[in-house]
Write a structure and sequence with these properties.
The chain has 4 helices and 9 strands. With 158 residues, the protein is an alpha+beta fold. The strands form 2 sheets. Strands 1, 2, 5, 6 and 7 form a 5-stranded mixed β-sheet that branches. The longest helix is centred in the middle third of the chain and has 13 residues, at 50-62. The radius of gyration is 15 Å and the shape is globular. 21% of the residues are buried.
């Protein structure tokens, strides 16, 4: 059972998100019901750790198993969702994950992944594009630039 509940026109969510960075780009997604980009992840289930939840969500959405490097941010947000117009109170833990042992960078700049009946469009967004894109969470549009350089630039040695 997801740790999420509705109370009249408000909703509480406990979520996790994966920050996957490759060559100054972050992997973002959207689907046919959401007009904006967001990060891969989802709700934490009752009795589940946040770490297990982020790995499970990436496996479900992308079919790969990431390695958690470290938590980056804990964000408490209050917002009205564009899709369902509910007022949200959300706690989200953002994890930096290592995808170097996966095929994600080789899937192309844009690719589709299916999860049950839903399909998701994934796109590698240049950090500089975040400020102009319809993208949530808003704080990431600035904070992504404050990651240590070893997380944002990958150098290939031949």
């Amino acid at each position: 059972m997801d740790i999420s509940f509705r109370c009249e026109s408000e909703k509480f969510n406990y979520r996790v998100c994966a920050i996957m960075v490759e060559d100054g780009r972050v992997l973002a997604m959207h689907d046919n019901r959401s007009p904006y980009f967001y990060l891969p992840g989802g709700r934490v289930q009752m009795g589940e750790t946040a770490e297990h939840a982020v790995i499970r969500e990436v496996e479900e959405e992308l079919g790969v198993t990431p390695k958690i490097l470290r938590p980056l941010w804990l964000n408490q947000a209050f917002f009205t969702e564009d899709v369902d117009t509910l007022r949200y109170h959300e706690l989200c833990i953002y994890f930096l994950v290592d995808i170097s042992d996966t095929d994600l960078p080789q899937r192309g700049d844009k690719f589709v992944s299916r999860e049950g009946e839903r399909s998701h469009l994934f796109e590698w967004l240049e950090f500089s594009r975040l400020k102009e894109e319809y993208f949530y969470p808003l704080f990431l549009k600035e904070d992504i630039f404050n990651l240590p350089v070893e997380f944002t630039i990958r150098t290939e040695i031949e």
